[in-house]
Description:
Elements: E1 8-16, E2 20-23, H1 24-28, H2 35-42, E3 46-49, H3 55-70, E4 79-83, H4 94-102, E5 108-112, H5 118-131, E6 138-145, E7 163-172, E8 178-186, E9 194-195, H6 207-211, E10 218-219, H7 221-242, E11 252-255, H8 260-270, H9 281-284, H10 291-301, E12 310-317, E13 321-328
Parallel strand pairs: 4-5, 4-6, 11-12
Antiparallel strand pairs: 1-7, 2-3, 6-7, 8-13, 9-10, 12-13
Helix pairs in contact: 3-4, 7-8
Amino acid sequence: MASTQPRATITAVERFLPERILSNKDLEKVVDTSDEWIRERTGIAERRILDGEPTSYMATKVAQGLLRRRGCHADDIDLILVATITPDMVLPATACLVQDQIGASKAWAFDLLAACSGFVYALVTGAQFISSGAHKRVMVIGADKMSAITDPHDRSTCILFGDGAGGVLLEAAEDGSGLIDFEMHADGSGRDDLHVRGGGSAYPATHESVDEGLHFIRQEGRTVFKFAVQRMAEVSLSLLQRNELTAQDLDLFVPHQANRRIIDATANRMGLASEQVMTNIEHVANTTAGTVPIALSEALDEGRLKPGNLVQLTAVGGGLTWGSALLRWGNAA
Ligand code: UT7
């Protein structure tokens, strides 16, 4: 039976990338690596670095851009969701800082932590408040200042990550567009594969924890790589199948941008043609919760998103977490 609930559709998209570029050549001066190795093994040529400002700075820029694009006022926003693993501080939530900085006096606000899956998790969460009729406008932002938690001397991570933010405005669809379906997963038994141990209640910050670098992100690169390829393809195909669709029906597949080889292997497993896949990892790198909305925003600017298009957003990240959202594109600004 068809659902009578309104669908949440994206009515505006925005991104923010800091100005400073950190190239592979720059990294060659810090760690034992090469431009050639990084390009070949990851597809990344450069990443952006935010100097002197926290994550909320980027998230606020995105929020202001969403209001401008949609032509609405901060008081029109009911809820602000920020997906991040690099909040400005442990308390308060970065979403509350954004709420204050844009003057969204009627909105409630909270952060959501699902690492690289954060934006897809937050999108699906925010959409529920639109479908239920509880809210009219929900802002969903993915923002990470990865340079704040990346060990500049760890060549297995410092080459991968960058800083950036993106976001969308969700409203009830009037044109049949919007979130069609989603499939989300978590498996905490993979907690050791990708983590930042220090600074929480398990390993509170001490001189020793800082000396040991527990405040930096660490990963089992090869394990995460294999997991990402398997799960991104699996969840994407499963979601398509239960909606009686195939990969060939997709107009645009927007995957988390972790590694060009992960994206290519996922697309290959799904049987997607390269024109169906959005990639911008070369100049943006892995911005964690920022990747999917930044890629969506660039796709819109490039004319790759048209009303009526079938779009799939899929991500995998620390937790471990993974999931996919299927949308009919509307008329987003
Ligand atoms: O959003 C989720 C976040 N994390 C990820 O997505 C990570 C997923 N994993 C990856 O992207 C890849 O595993 C990496 C890019 C991290 C590593 O690539 P790889 O092809 O899996 O390399 P590897 O770890 O198997 O290492 C191969 C070799 C090793 O040398 P030996 O032992 O063969 O002599 C590494 O020490 O490459 C070496 N290596 C490097 N060499 C130059 C590792 N990192 C670098 C580097 N530059 N930056």
